Amino acid sequence: MQSLAAAAIVFVGGFAIMVLEIVGTRFLAKYFGTSYYVWVNQIGLVMVALALGYYWGGILADRWRKLGKLAWLLAPAGVFTFYIPHFADRLINMVSTPLNQPLTPFRQVLDPVLGSAVVFLLPCVMLAMLSPYVTQICARNLSQVGRASGLIFAASTVGSIAGVFISGYFLLQAATLTTIFYVTGGAIMLLAAACVALNGWLQPPDRPATPLPPHLHD
Prior knowledge:
Shape: elongated
Order of helices and strands: HHHHHHHH
Strand content: under 5%
Distance between the termini: 44 Å
Mean pLDDT: 86
Number of strands: 0
Radius of gyration: 19 Å
Helix content: over 70%
């Protein structure tokens, strides 16, 4: 049951990341158009967020070792996502070329990167921290690290796959962008609440220290 709960947590995290990536591209279109620059930059930005989140999530997992601590990261990410429709204009206008100025080829590439970064980098990094963090909690001992990491990253990837198709084939057809951000932000906040609720049940065991090989002893 613990493994299923952990897999469900990262499934939702992976789902939310892909919703932000796919829906984010449509959202950025009103500022930068629908050229391939926007798609490439949004995909690349999310990959950067994944790399940063995996790295920092692994560090925090070794330091905190409690699932409830993740709520301090996920809750702000959820609030941020919820309010994207209300403050994104100001953020994007701060980093992009004013509408009354012509776009140079350099700014045509750079503006979508900066616009995507100020809106979507933070929540995607926070969500990406889930996978390495939950892997630490699920690995009952050193001999099960491979199995635990395989389960967690598979569940996260399945969530991402679901996020891609549900966003593209359903959400963008059935709801406004504002509604999608509201629902996604709310889901991330619920994810934070779930981490708090499961904190005492999902936690890493006290693992004995790995003994040193005989030739390394004094």
